Amino acid sequence: MASKELKQFTRDEVAQHNKQMILNPLGSRKSYHSPYFKESHKRFQKEVRKFVDEVVYPDALAREEDGKRPSLSVVQKMAIFPHNSRGYGDGLNAGAVIGLPPVMNFGAPALRDRVVSEVLSGKKFISLAISEAFAGSDVAGLKTTAKKTEDGKFWIINGTKKWITNGTFSDYFTVGCKTEDGLTVILVERGEGVETKSIKTSYSPTAGTAYITFENVKVPVENTLGPEGGGIFVILSNFNHERWVMCCSAARGQRSIVEECLKWVNQRKAFGKPLSSQAVIRSKLAEMIARAESVQSWLENVTYQMCNMSYKQQARSLAGQIALLKMFATRAAKTLPGTQYWWERYH
């Protein structure tokens, strides 16, 4: 009797159910529980997705076509900065995400209040200018120099930076420089002596990737971020935040990869049957889904720790965890035959 009362689901209903189960993190699914998320978070997630679909996505398509930076009208409508994909996503917020925190955490109050207000309102853009042609994560190898004028009131900056996201259209640059006392981070405003050239990349012109030249750029010493010679701490602390953002992007991107793979294995046939009917393919999909879920769980735990630690505590206690998570998250998806395009698009 009991078996007769069970509802019979169609194949399409089962497929839709499975899709929603896979594409949403466990704690945000209906009827599931989370130690971190409340019902208000789920409602917020729903509204953000609606906003992205109706406002952000149309502009993303248009900007990928013309190669310009995201429209100011989109930024002005945003209450948050969703990082939903590479390319347009990088153009929309990457520079602010990695270039603004040093200003917020180490800038003088007057400088911080002015720059943060301008950037978050969308009136101006900022980028992090650390990488050079022959130095990146090895910040001790930076060659861009900053020397003080005789009266000690200004920095004179000379050097080049490469692969700088948002650099082509940035108004501010958070720059790592070599000084007498070691490394120092300085906020540079676009002006005389600052030249940017676009670098063509394989994924998107909207990110505004740039080669930057600083030639005798005069900057007030008040624009110094953190102590003189203390740039290593400023830069490495910021790397933690930058890597965490990459982990968030990777966690979301993995689910997009899984979605496309699920579509593909049900469309593509081999020997008269869908690829999804083959055990080896199903095994690969299961591994991808399992790793995507584990990345999400690890990310939520690390994020909780970040929310309950000071900036200095994060730098001291979470650098290793965040670095390991980034390594794991960016290697957590496998590709199936014919799906390499999606890996390149989302990874």
TrEMBL record:
<dbReference type="InterPro" id="IPR036250">
    <property type="entry name" value="AcylCo_DH-like_C"/>
</dbReference>
<feature type="domain" description="Acyl-CoA oxidase/dehydrogenase middle">
    <location>
        <begin position="128"/>
        <end position="217"/>
    </location>
</feature>
<keyword id="KW-0285">Flavoprotein</keyword>
<dbReference type="InterPro" id="IPR006091">
    <property type="entry name" value="Acyl-CoA_Oxase/DH_mid-dom"/>
</dbReference>
<dbReference type="InterPro" id="IPR009100">
    <property type="entry name" value="AcylCoA_DH/oxidase_NM_dom_sf"/>
</dbReference>
<keyword id="KW-0274">FAD</keyword>
<dbReference type="InterPro" id="IPR037069">
    <property type="entry name" value="AcylCoA_DH/ox_N_sf"/>
</dbReference>
<dbReference type="Pfam" id="PF00441">
    <property type="entry name" value="Acyl-CoA_dh_1"/>
</dbReference>
<comment type="similarity">
    <text>Belongs to the acyl-CoA dehydrogenase family.</text>
</comment>
<protein>
    <submittedName>
        <fullName>Isovaleryl-CoA dehydrogenase, mitochondrial</fullName>
    </submittedName>
</protein>
<dbReference type="GO" id="GO:0050660">
    <property type="term" value="F:flavin adenine dinucleotide binding"/>
</dbReference>
<dbReference type="InterPro" id="IPR009075">
    <property type="entry name" value="AcylCo_DH/oxidase_C"/>
</dbReference>
<keyword id="KW-0560">Oxidoreductase</keyword>
<dbReference type="InterPro" id="IPR006089">
    <property type="entry name" value="Acyl-CoA_DH_CS"/>
</dbReference>
<dbReference type="InterPro" id="IPR046373">
    <property type="entry name" value="Acyl-CoA_Oxase/DH_mid-dom_sf"/>
</dbReference>
<dbReference type="InterPro" id="IPR050741">
    <property type="entry name" value="Acyl-CoA_dehydrogenase"/>
</dbReference>
<dbReference type="GO" id="GO:0033539">
    <property type="term" value="P:fatty acid beta-oxidation using acyl-CoA dehydrogenase"/>
</dbReference>
<feature type="domain" description="Acyl-CoA dehydrogenase/oxidase C-terminal">
    <location>
        <begin position="229"/>
        <end position="334"/>
    </location>
</feature>
<dbReference type="GO" id="GO:0003995">
    <property type="term" value="F:acyl-CoA dehydrogenase activity"/>
</dbReference>
<dbReference type="GO" id="GO:0005737">
    <property type="term" value="C:cytoplasm"/>
</dbReference>
<dbReference type="Pfam" id="PF02770">
    <property type="entry name" value="Acyl-CoA_dh_M"/>
</dbReference>
